[in-house]
Amino acid sequence: MTGVTATATAAAGTDASYQAVFDAAVAADERIEPRDWMPEEYRSSLVRQMAQHAHSEIIGMQPEANWITRAPSLRRKAILMAKVQDEAGHGLYLYSAAETLGTGRDELLDKLHSGRQKYSSIFNYPTLTWADVGAIGWLVDGAAITNQVPLCRCSYGPYARAMVRICKEESFHQRQGYELLLALSQGTPDQHAMAQDAVNRWWWPSLMMFGPPDDESAHSAQSMTWKIKRHSNDELRQRFVDIAVGQAEGLGLTLPDPELRWNEERGHHDFGPIDWTEFWEVLKGNGPCNEQRITQRRRAHEEGAWVREAAASYATKHQTQRSRSQSQSQSQSQHANGEATA
Ligand code: FAQ
């Protein structure tokens, strides 16, 4: 919050006056910062969304990492490794941002591992061919950017700032996916068919990434009032479809929807019905890869325990050394002052 509202916060005495200061800050498009007063529901809804987002980034490493050892060239392998590392970094920024709300990373990971928190439905689908890496970059990162660019203007400062860097990196990811698919699409007939097959399989799950339709979205209305979300699920889904149609033409590929066509009156593309039964089933844990993803995540966490312990001991050792040398230099300067006075 700015100086004016921060002063008002300090002067405020009751929950109602704190609430009024918070509401005014949100209405004025000011950022809410970690030390500002905020309603408990705002805090818990942010933790819910940010945790789900962070979990998606680290679980999202799995489908693509599956192809690192089988990338068709050194160049493709280097690009894919960098992309998968970026996703780990995004998880790190988001867990750190969630920590500013008073929720530790251990607690969030525990909730992920025990199934009490979600990650994006999209990562429960398998990557069957190399073209899937391209389809993920183009469609999944493309959908993620469409959803996440407005989050750079989210009312909670640490989340909004994390999203600025994430979106820049996602934009690079999206282009590499497009370029990969273009190379396949313009390659041999088999390569073209592989690219088309990947797009056919990833199109509908990508549309589901935006969440349920607006009339079934439990959190949208409140999140938009708080300016956590700036647009509804359906608005963003429509924006993505409108962008993807032209890009598919550029790729020389088709989108697997016979009902997809431009609607002059609406100024948007109409598209066919989404299979929401499939979406809710995936959320319940019944997607093609739910079990594999969470088992692999738990195993990675257990196998990484020694790294976390080593990093913690290293930090403690350096902290102790720093405090020791600080107190030594303090006593030396006291001693020197004493001699000078004498
Ligand atoms: N999957 O009331 P709403 C990426 C849940 S990152 C699973 O509409 P909300 C980068 C929702 O949590 C992809 N669950 O919820 C990458 C809620 O359940 P809850 C992740 C979903 O929060 C690329 C319930 O349904 N991006 O791809 C999904 O207002 C390549 C009711 O829904 C983000 O997380 C879903 N698709 O809107 C990485 C962006 N949709 O919590 C690697 C930030 C809904 O009550 C490789 N998040 N649910 O138990 C958001 O923008 C929002 O949270 C939405 C959902 C839009 C996802």
Automatic annotation (TrEMBL):
Top-rank taxon: Bacteria
Residue stretches of biased makeup (Low complexity): 322-334
InterPro entries on file: Aromatic_CoA_ox/epox (IPR052703), Ferritin-like (IPR012347), Ferritin-like_SF (IPR009078), PaaA (IPR011881), PaaA_PaaC (IPR007814)
EC category name: oxidoreductase
UniProt GO molecular function: phenylacetyl-CoA 1,2-epoxidase activity
Entry EC no(s): 1.14.13.149
Keyword annotations: Oxidoreductase
GO cellular component, one term: cytosol
Sequence segments annotated as region (Disordered): 309-342
Keyword Zinc-finger (UniProt): no
Gene Ontology biological process terms, A to Z: phenylacetate catabolic process
PANTHER family named among the record's database cross-references: 1,2-PHENYLACETYL-COA EPOXIDASE, SUBUNIT A, PHENYLACETIC ACID DEGRADATION PROTEIN PAA
UniProt-recorded name of the protein: 1,2-phenylacetyl-CoA epoxidase, subunit A
Species annotation: Streptomyces hundungensis
